[in-house]
Design a protein that fits this description.
The chain is of the alpha+beta class. Strand 6 and strand 7 form a beta hairpin. It is elongated and about 70 Å long. Helix content is about 15%, strand content about 25%.
């Protein structure tokens, strides 16, 4: 993987480094590629248009957004997720005796699984669901409340907003995954993450998923 930092002082016209990079693109790396580019203000987080030369044939791609309200859904409480001390040590789950850290991790996975069920609009999270255990053994984590859930689907470049729960599927052919590590697209391509955010506690829990051959794994 080759990394070129466009913010370097050396990346200015007529500087040796800049001219060498330009020569390489004109004579060696001269295949055409499509790029998705976005600009966000580092202070406000708001997006802004970018001016491109006419020769680039750039076009604006708006973000597609759909919103749907899921009524009367079982919603797990997340207090244990935000406070490790609430996770009971020496608890049994699935027949296994777990430590406090393992209980906390298990509770986090339960919330992550619930987010997945919401994203596919599964009937198993409905307050009225009474499925036969032979069909599905899934149940919403206890304790839970009942209420509406707002499901928002966005396709495109996302801005920074105060989202309570978000699941993001990235590009399979992305060259890098986390912290500039090589993604290994040709071996798998898994590239996603999910987050749940708590504005009051100013905390965020992130679940990362990438292929086993990704150098970040």
């Amino acid at each position: 993987m080759v990394v070129i930092d466009l913010k370097l002082d050396a990346m200015q016209p007529k500087r040796p480094y800049y001219e060498r990079v330009r020569w390489s693109f004109e004579n060696v790396l001269n295949k055409e590629y499509e790029f998705l580019v976005a600009y966000f203000d580092s202070v406000t987080g708001e997006s802004a248009p970018i001016e491109f030369p006419e020769s680039s044939e750039a076009k604006q791609i708006p973000t597609a957004v759909t919103t749907k309200i899921l009524d009367d859904v079982k919603i797990p409480t997340t207090e244990v997720v935000w406070d490790h001390s609430l996770a009971s040590a020496n608890s049994r789950k699935g027949g296994a005796l777990l430590t406090g850290a393992e209980v906390w991790q298990s509770d986090c996975y339960d919330v992550y699984e619930w987010l997945g069920m919401v994203s596919i609009e599964s009937e198993r999270i409905a307050a009225t669901d009474r499925v036969d255990p032979f069909v599905s053994v899934y149940s919403v984590p206890e304790p839970h409340a009942q209420g509406p859930v707002c499901l928002v689907r966005c396709t495109g470049m996302l801005e920074r907003h105060g989202i309570v729960g978000i699941t993001v599927w990235g590009f399979e052919d992305a060259p890098i995954s986390w912290y500039s590590h090589i993604h290994s697209y040709y071996l798998s391509g898994e590239n996603m993450y999910a987050q749940i955010r708590n504005k009051e506690k100013k905390m965020c829990l992130t679940f990362q998923a990438c292929c086993p051959y990704d150098t970040f794994s």
